Structures are given as C-alpha cells and as structure tokens.
Amino acid sequence: MGVGLRIALVDDDVHLAQAIKLWLEEQGYDVMQYSNGREFTSALRKESFDLFILDWVMPDLDGEQILSWLTEQSEHNTPVIFVTQRDSEEDIAKILNMGADDYITKPVRQKELLARISAVTRRSQVSPQKEILECPPYRINLTSHSLLKNDEPVKLTQKEFELVAFLFKNIGRLLSRGHILSSVWGHGSEFTTRTVDTHVSRIRKKLDLNPDNGWRLSAIYHQGYRLEQVDKEEFAK
Fold first, then answer.
1. Is the CA virtual torsion 19, 20, 21, 24 positive or negative?
2. pLDDT tens for residues 14-53?
3. Which terminus, N or C, of the chain has the lesser number of Cβ atoms within 10 Å?
4. Domain coordinates of the chain in residue numbers?
5. How many Cβ atoms from other residues are within 10 Å of residue 202's Cβ?
6. CB atoms closer than 10 angstroms to residue 24
C-alpha cells in the first residue's frame, strides 16, 4: 500500500485525472489534482510532494515547460512520471533526457501505473529503509519507536515519534504543513495544520533541536518546515 506518499497529479483531462486519482487513493496515496500547469506551479509555492504525475499536452504550461521549470528549482528533486498520448521514440527519449523519471502512454492501465509509481519511488529513496537512523546526538529506532539523545531516552508520544521519524527521513527537504499532516496523521485526517505547528514546537523542545546540537528545525514562512544538519562549531564561535 502507498500510505504516506503524497502525489501531485497534473492533467487537463478531468475524467482521466479523476479515474487515476481514485486508483491511487484506493492504494492509500494522498493525491492533489491540478487541471493546468499554472495552478500546479502556483501550488508549489506552499506545498510539497513525493511524486509528480504530469500530462504533456496542456493548454497553458505544458508538461515539458513544467519539467524545465522544476529542474531549475533547487528545492525540487521530486521524481516525475509523464502520462501522455505522445508515444514516439523521439518524444520518450527527449522527456527522459530532460529529467523525467518514467513515461506512460495513454490509455493508462491501472496496474502498470501503480507498478511504475512503486518502482520510481523506490529508486528515488536516498537509502534503503533502515531500522535505525543514526543522526548524532540522536539515535532513532524505527522498529521499537524509541529515541535516544546522547544515549539517554527521550519520552515521545506516538505522533511525536512519527513526526520526528518523518523529519529525519527527509533531512534538508522543505516539507509543507499539508505534506507533514497527510504523512504523519494520514490522508483525510480531521486535524488541521495547526496540529503540525503544535507538535513541531513540542519536538523542538524535547529534542533540543538547535545548532548547539548540530541541528536546526526552521519554519519557512507560508510554506512549512525544514530540518537541517548544521556545523555546531561554526555557531559556537
């Protein structure tokens, strides 16, 4: 199942987009649907995703223009799958050489799409899933849901631990509040982004996430949060 994965679907074919959205949500994915390129690029100013699915031919910004824009943005290294009627070898080679991670021709087949999403997101992982995240002075055990700071246990609630794990799996990445909410609390959660802010404040205090410990958890105005590793010796000068 795709629980926790957040996908942006950009396609001006409303009926096809709704069908794809339904397939993905049945697998547990959190899907945000956009009917044109400008709506999507505008949303990226405050949202973050684990995967983009782009149609090539659209009336305003087409998929190729969106891909070019994404590759120019240092914040966006999110994998991209193209879904389009264009199926010539030249088109496929062009879009893959531009930076797309995969390519599916219409008509879209459900099982093929799901398999390709699984493959692309597996390849995009920085490292294989680990049982232990070693992020000195923190040691995060993903199996026992426990955390040590300087070998001393830190008491966390279940959701606080899940938030910590999500942030440390995405070090250096700007994560929108909506992305955090759907990944930690689940798609369709009744909670609001204020819940995210409250829990971030709690874990920042409990873990003492500050440059003295080599970490910084920053709030990015109107966007979300970014956890970064910093040189604590630089801040000590």
1. positive
2. 999 999 999 999 998 999 999 999 999 999 888 999 999 9
3. C
4. 6-124, 132-236
5. 15
6. 23
* Token pair 């290294």: residue: 77
CB 211 within 8 A of CB 204: no
What are the residues facing 220 on neighbouring strands? 224
Give the alpha-carbon dihedral of 119, 120, 126, 127, to 10 degrees.
0
Q: Is 221 helix (H, G, I), strand (E, B) or coil?
A: coil
Structure token digits, residue 96: 């893959």
Collect all residues with Cβ–Cβ distance below 8 Å to 155 and sequence separation of at least 6.
206
Distance between CA atoms of 208 and 49, rounded to whole angstroms?
A: 27
DSSP state of 210: S
Q: What fold, for 6-124?
A: Rossmann fold (3.40.50)
Residue 216 bridge partners (DSSP) = 228
**Assigned CATH for 132-236:** 1.10.10.10
Residue 45: both structure tokens together? 């100013």
Q: In terms of Cα–Cα distance, which of 73, 70, 66, 53 is closest to 11?
A: 53
In DSSP terms, 80 is beta-bridged to 52
pLDDT tens for each residue of 147-161: 999 999 999 999 999
Task: For residue 90, give both structure tokens.
Answer: 């030249």
Q: Considering only 85-94, 116-125, 208-217, 226-235, which range has the smallest mean pLDDT?
A: 226-235
Q: Categorize the per-residue pLDDT at 97 as very low, low, confident or very high, splitting at 50, 70 and 90.
A: very high
The values of phi and psi at residue 213, to 5°, are -100, 5
CB atoms under 10 Å from CB of 217, counted, come to: 17
